[in-house]
Amino acid sequence: MSVSDESRGRVRQMREKAKELNAAAERSSDPKERQRLKEKAQRLEAQSEQESGMSTGDIYPDV
After folding, report:
1. Domain presence at residue 58
2. Domain residues for 23?
3. Exposure class string for 19-40: b at 16+ Cβ within 10 A, else e
4. CA–CA separation, 4 vs 27, rounded Å?
5. Poorest-pLDDT segment among 32-36, 41-45, 47-51
6. Is the distance from CB of 25 to CB of 41 less than 8 angstroms?
7. 60 in a domain, yes or no?
8. What's the domain count of the chain?
């Protein structure tokens, strides 16, 4: 398995985990827990975007 394959796998796992956290947040009846889960999902999504950009060599994705 190449480094890029491993990176894509990590990115995919982070995105899947973020989706799971968002789903758990939607099911939560506790507002504080819902907010905590959503924030954790947002951090994972941002991290996956950053890692995805790094794996493609695009360190300035918005430029």
Report:
1. no
2. 3-51
3. eebbeebeeeeeeeeeeebbeb
4. 35
5. 47-51
6. yes
7. no
8. 1
Could you report the per-residue pLDDT of 7-19, keeping only the tens digit for each? 889 999 999 999 9
CA 24, 30, 36, 38 dihedral sign is: positive
Angle at Cα 53 formed by Cα 48 and Cα 56, nearest 5°? 125
How many residues can be counted in the chain?
Answer: 63
Q: Which residues contact 30 (CB under 8 A, 6 or more apart)?
A: none
Per the domain annotation, does 33 fall within a domain? yes
Q: How many CA atoms lie within 13 A of 46 on its CB side?
A: 6
Residue 61: CB partners within 8 Å, gap ≥ 6? 49, 53
In a domain, 62, yes or no: no
